[in-house]
Amino acid sequence: MIHDSVADVLHGEAFLELHGFTPEFSTFVKLEGMNPAGSIKLKTARCLLDSAEREGLVGSGQHLIESTSGNLGIALASLCAVKGYRITLVTDPNANQRSVRHMEALGADVVVVHERDANGGYLQTRIEYIRRRLQADPTLHWLNQYASPANVLAHSTGTAGEILRGFGVPDWLFVGVGTSGTLMGCVEHFREAGAPTKIVAVDTEGSVTFGGPAGTRRIPGLGTSLRPQIFQDAGHFQKMLVPEPETIRTCRRVAREHGLLVGGSTGTVLAAVRAARDWIPPGSRVLAIAPDMGDRYLDTVYDDEWVTLRYGADALGGEPGPDSPDTPRVPALLSRP
Ligand SMILES: Cc1ncc(COP(=O)(O)O)c(C=O)c1O
Predict the structure, then answer these.
(1) Over residues 33-37, mean pLDDT
(2) Pocket test for ligand 1, best of 40, 98, 177, 269 (most atoms within 8 A of CB)
(3) pLDDT value at position 87?
(4) Where on the phi/psi map is residue 59: left (φ > 0), alpha (ψ -120 to 50), or beta?
(5) Residue 336 Cα, ligand 1 centroid: separation in angstroms?
(6) How far apart are the C-alpha atoms of 29 and 331, rounded to whole Å?
(7) Which atom of ligand 1 is nearest to the CA of 180?
């Protein structure tokens, strides 16, 4: 197939069964890392830009600014290169070095803020930096993925539609929560379609999005230190929190047992799937959204020294196999699915 723009090369209907991951029911992943930006955020970036253009907020030669933990930045930098927009991307020390270099190679200005905010994260610092820049230069446009309805739209029309078309109706859907755009879009679309799917929102321990206490997090993608404006909990999904060592053990295990190098968020949602297996009826079809692949995490999640120094050798995980000692570790469960 011949595409017109990098924004159109989406591969949104790639699903993979992880045979034996959960012997009692089938677990599948929706692989979102197979497009030119390497993550689900290509859809978000496209929708944020399209909507700003439609509303006449950005035009030729525009200078844009956005906060990112990495993947949205790469996707925006890619699309802005095509459209001739200048973009400043504001990130923090948790962003993978490779992601920062990737954004720069695509022509973006990258600013890394280093000061932790009141909740021990960096999101408030990133936002405050953007507000200062906007005050100093009113022609600058902030896309604001944490507040824009276009972020939700990208996944209600995109991600959720791709699932129902390409996979069918899953019995359970596990979605990681960063800005919550993916979650909100899926909840909206599945409800409108009348799908009986049980949706489970998964976040990292230490994130404040579900109302839990703030704590140190080092893996980019999921979690916030400031609840996103688009996140709304009207009781349409269950919530689970996963500690980062469990994310790491799961990523490494999936790589060794399934030959799939997954990103940190995918390890997190898959850890939640395994932890919820007592509540999932045998024979169910469970789908987990995999926002990116693991190559961006080779220097962190898949680096023995990085892991051991920060989480201890236990986080490296045991030998592959169903009876390995890391099998029964259960993430903290906020609400019983
Ligand atoms: C690595 C990673 N994890 C999780 C997510 C889910 O994010 P959101 O809640 O912002 O849709 C994303 C979004 O792109 C991501 O890139």
Answers:
(1) 96
(2) 40
(3) 98
(4) beta
(5) 23
(6) 20
(7) 9
Pocket of ligand 1 (CB under 6 A): 39-41, 71, 176-183, 221-222, 263, 265, 291-292
State which H helix or E strand residue 89 sits in: strand 86-91
Task: List the domains of the chain with CATH numbers.
Answer: 6-35+149-316 (3.40.50.1100), 41-142 (3.40.50.1100)
Structure tokens at 257: 């047992």
Give pLDDT, residue 119.
87
**Quick one: which atom of ligand 1 is closest to the CA of 71?**
16
pLDDT digits (tens, 9 = 90+) for 172-185: 999 999 999 999 99
CA atoms lying within 13 Å on the CB side of residue 47: 24
120-133 as b/e: b if 16+ CB within 10 A: ebbbbbbbebbeeb
Across the chain, mean pLDDT equals: 93
Nearest alpha carbon to residue 294 among 325, 267, 318, 332: 267
Which atom in ligand 1 lies closest to the alpha carbon of residue 265? Answer: 3
> 295 with 230: CB under 8 angstroms?
no
DSSP strand pairing (26-31 vs 15-17)? antiparallel
> Which residues neighbour 256 within 8 Å (Cβ) at sequence distance 6 or greater?
320
CA distance 61 to 45: 17
The reply to whether the predicted model has a pTM over 0.85 is yes
75 CA distance to ligand 1 middle (Å):
12
Atom of ligand 1 nearest to the CA of 179: 10
What are the strands, taking DSSP E only, across 131-232? 141-142, 172-176, 198-204
